[in-house]
């Protein structure tokens, strides 16, 4: 009996090792990323929550049990939002039991892969400072009951973002078997394509005349036009980065251009302005850093020619859309009122501000009000920090941004860093007139992961990112750091 049992265990062990081998290879292919993206879109477009959420959780569990890297789970973590087709969260609460299988799988993943020394990382203390500023916001001004109203936002924006940073810093695999930067950018591309397709579906389903688009907020469930634009600013720029990694870069330029076009269709005026600025910078970088600049320039010329042809072919509808967009005007939509209110809050409580759960008088200026997740939105990074957290918040965020920018510019000649700069110009610029930097999931959690990649791109050895087996040519490992342009593409299954 003992011999038979031992043989069975040995066979089970070999079977599990084979399973791990298959999963570890599969998750780094485009097939895996495409699978998650398709499942997400189908779950959303059919509004079948049991299928969408259950399928995504099943895929995540399979990866958790077989993978030794948190990076492939990125599309599951940040793409999970996109399957939510309604803003009525209560309608989906009943599905909570399907989350239960994640618990043991997460435990297995953590125990199995908790092998190396714990790392704090460069962004640990800056994010701790932000967390403390959020927790101290409103001290001595608001009541305990009011303070608790925004507890979920405070925890997610502070401790939640910090937890994501710690988990990625600890469980991100760095053995040189894949290009971390390229893989992350591909995840962003697939997420961006899903966002863009969902927007187009909502527009088509609305059956709204183009001239009336200015009245719509294009509610996708998980977000409206401003959320859509913010997400696409992040994903489109990194999709353009991918065009510099492959000989057939025009494929990624097309995918990125599609996402930038959808920023216009979102009818988010701030998103269009800052997405346009970010997009122009990213396009210039894509041309300058292209593997074949001549082919890239020809492709860009063809795209612009195609745009002109489409314009003249559908001149009436396009002019109607532009007129509808311009009809929204160039006003601030009540933001100046909120900014004045934030300044008054700062003057009344300069040290700690009035807290993120402050219940102001102008919440009605924006659809959804200022009480989403219990937070009163001032619709600006600067004024949100001033009004909600006072001088303590200013000091904390100054520290946070100083470290982030230092990591960015320390290796600014690197192509990935340049594209991140383009993305951040769009994201941070738009957040100065919207709430992007105070939306913990997915915005700030994505930003902190992106910042960690900058940190690794500055401090790692070349072999930690590039491996001969996955590169077109042997990487130069003679240099001790990644502070020079030592980038090689990773040819995954679908990108050959």
Give the topology, please.
Elements (H helix, E strand, L loop, with lengths): L1 H25 L3 H16 L3 H18 L7 H6 L22 H12 L10 H13 L7 H6 L1 H21 L8 H27 L18 H18 L7 H16 L3 H20 L4 H21 L1 H13 L7 H14 L32 H30 L4 H17 L8 H20 L37
Descriptive notes:
- By secondary structure, the protein is mainly alpha-helical.
- The protein has 18 helices and no strands.
- The chain has helices at residues 2-26, 30-45, 49-66, 74-79, 102-113, 124-136, 144-149, 151-171, 180-206, 225-242, 250-265, 269-288, 293-313, 315-327, 335-348, 381-410, 415-431, 440-459.
Number of strands: 0
Separate helix tally: 18
Multimeric state of these chains?
single chain
Q: Tell me the strand percentage band.
A: under 5%
Distance between the termini: 52 Å
Which key features would you list for this structure?
mainly alpha, globular
Summarize the structure.
The protein is mainly α.
């Amino acid at each position: 009996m003992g011999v038979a049992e031992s043989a069975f265990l040995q066979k089970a062990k070999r079977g599990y090792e084979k399973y791990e081998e298959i999963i570890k290879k599969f998750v780094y292919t485009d097939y895996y990323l495409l699978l998650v993206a398709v499942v997400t879109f189908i779950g959303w477009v059919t509004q079948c929550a049991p299928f969408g959420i259950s399928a995504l959780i099943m895929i995540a569990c399979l990866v958790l049990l077989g993978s030794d890297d948190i990076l492939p789970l990125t599309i599951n973590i940040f793409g999970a939002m996109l399957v939510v087709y309604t803003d009525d969260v209560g309608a989906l609460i009943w599905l909570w039991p399907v989350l239960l299988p994640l618990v043991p799988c997460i435990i297995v993943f953590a125990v199995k892969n908790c092998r190396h020394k714990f790392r704090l990382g460069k962004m640990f203390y800056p994010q701790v400072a932000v967390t403390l500023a959020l927790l101290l916001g409103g001290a001595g001004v608001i009541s305990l009951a009011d303070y608790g109203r925004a507890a979920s936002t405070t925890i997610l924006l502070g401790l939640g973002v910090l937890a994501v940073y710690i988990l990625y810093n600890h469980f991100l695999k760095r053995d040189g078997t894949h290009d971390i930067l390229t893989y992350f950018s591909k995840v962003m591309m697939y997420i961006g394509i899903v966002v863009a397709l969902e927007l187009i579906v909502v527009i088509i389903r609305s059956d709204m005349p183009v001239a009336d688009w200015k009245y719509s907020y294009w509610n996708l469930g998980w977000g409206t036009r401003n959320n859509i634009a913010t997400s696409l600013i992040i994903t489109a720029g990194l999709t353009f980065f991918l065009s510099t990694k492959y000989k057939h870069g025009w494929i990624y330029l097309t995918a990125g251009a599609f996402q930038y076009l959808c920023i216009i269709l979102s009818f988010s005026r701030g998103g269009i302005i800052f997405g346009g600025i970010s997009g122009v910078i990213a396009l210039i970088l894509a041309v300058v850093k292209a593997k074949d600049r001549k082919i890239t320039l020809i492709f860009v010329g063809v795209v612009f020619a195609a745009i002109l042809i489409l314009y003249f072919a559908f001149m009436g509808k396009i002019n109607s859309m532009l007129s509808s967009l311009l009809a929204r005007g160039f006003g601030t939509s009540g933001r100046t009122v909120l900014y004045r209110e934030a300044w008054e809050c700062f003057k009344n409580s300069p040290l700690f501000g009035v807290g993120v759960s402050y219940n102001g008088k102008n919440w009605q200026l924006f659809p959804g009000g200022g009480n989403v997740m219990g937070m009163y939105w001032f619709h600006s990074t600067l004024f949100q920090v001033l009004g909600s957290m006072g001088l303590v918040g200013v000091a904390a965020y100054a520290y946070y941004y100083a470290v982030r920018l230092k990591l960015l510019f320390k290796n600014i000649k690197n192509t990935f860093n340049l594209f991140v700069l383009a993305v951040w110009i769009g994201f941070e610029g738009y957040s100065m007139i919207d709430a992007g930097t105070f939306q913990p999931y997915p915005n700030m959690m994505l930003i902190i992961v992106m910042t960690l990649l900058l940190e690794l791109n500055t401090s790692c050895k070349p072999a930690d990112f590039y491996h001969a087996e996955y590169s077109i040519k042997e990487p130069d490992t003679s240099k001790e750091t990644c502070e020079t342009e030592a980038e090689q593409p990773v040819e995954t299954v679908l990108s050959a």
